[in-house]
Design a protein that fits this description.
The protein has 2 helices and no strands. By secondary structure, the chain is mainly alpha-helical. It is rod-shaped and about 110 Å long.
């Protein structure tokens, strides 16, 4: 959507405007309706017309919408803090995995290598002892 002349549409504040924040408990202004071209194509297609039916029943009016209240400064600060904390946790988790993965891989490889060497040494000792005992038993017979 382009605006002729590069000026923002009316009702949209610019970065240089000071927007008055309503006092807590004040009624917030109704949200602006989006421009028609912001709707998807399917939403702009009209439904097939149905014949008008005369009814004698009274029409019920929908309840008036309740104007949303703006969050207080404390609620806004809490929301920003929660969002920021979530982003920091995700970034910290990613960085920790990125840093620790090669370190843990090297440590695991080292432990496995040491365990294999120790196991091979122990296994050689056990086999040598078992062979010596078997030979001694056969000599005694």
């Amino acid at each position: 959507m382009s605006v002729p002349g590069g000026a923002p549409p009316s009702g949209v504040p610019t970065l240089t405007e000071v927007v008055a924040w309503p006092a807590p408990g004040a009624v917030a202004p109704a949200p602006l309706e989006p421009a028609p071209e912001a709707f998807p194509l399917e939403a702009t297609v009209a439904a097939p017309a149905t014949p008008a039916v005369a009814t004698t029943m009274p029409l019920e009016l929908a309840p008036a919408p309740v104007a949303p209240t703006l969050p207080t400064e404390e609620q806004l600060a809490q929301r920003v803090l929660n969002d920021l904390q979530h982003q920091i946790e995700l970034m910290l988790d990613y960085r920790m995995r990125e840093i620790l993965t090669p370190i843990l891989t090297r440590a695991t490889d080292s432990v496995i290598r040491d365990a294999r060497a120790e196991l091979a040494s122990t296994l050689r000792d056990l086999v040598a002892r078992a062979v010596a005992q078997e030979l001694a038993r056969h000599r005694d017979k």
